[in-house]
């Protein structure tokens, strides 16, 4: 399918800080920004910035960012599902994964993740997609947050709800490995019933096994 993207931006004021939320942005735009040294959840900052630029260059890739004074302090990515996960087995061209969302530690009490999710759904093209995110407790920053697994799960669900993503059941073995793990999904208003059925067959690929 043709990947149509419409750029959106807005300024928000949080705790005396003025932040720019914008996206989807190009790899060139990412390169022009500084990158917060505290964004280390997935890679070292320099490497993660390059990874974001690579995602932005993909046909389906979407990068939305939160910026303060020319520095990226948070981001959210949308890509096709990871080839190592069951979701990549789907024939659907309109299945996107919220691949990562990260906010620098000093900004995390400001609901910037929720704001980025809301901005991401401003684009009408998102109504053509099924958007998923797979949440695994071992990826969560339990140490710095001071939250229990279940408290963190509640925070994650509440944040994802801001983008219209809702919990859905699945028999995926990785998600089923721990009760705190979960699949969350947003089905766009123009997604066909046929595509929804195809997605359901992936969600429960073992439903007929005994």
From TrEMBL:
User: Which Pfam families does the entry mention?
Assistant: Acetyltransf_1 (PF00583)
Q: Pinpoint the N-acetyltransferase domain residues.
A: 23-173
Question: Which PROSITE patterns does UniProt cross-reference here?
Answer: GNAT
> Which GO-annotated molecular functions does the record name?
acetoin dehydrogenase (NAD+) activity; acyltransferase activity, transferring groups other than amino-acyl groups
Q: Which GO terms describe its biological process?
A: acetoin catabolic process
Q: Does the keyword Acyltransferase apply?
A: yes
Keyword S-adenosyl-L-methionine (UniProt): no
Q: Name the domain of life this protein comes from.
A: Bacteria
Q: What is its EC number?
A: 2.3.1.-
- Which UniProt key words apply to this protein? Acyltransferase, Transferase
Q: What is this protein called?
A: Acetoin utilization protein AcuA
Q: Which organism is it from?
A: Geomicrobium halophilum
Q: What are the top taxonomic ranks of the organism?
A: Bacteria, Bacillati, Bacillota, Bacilli, Bacillales
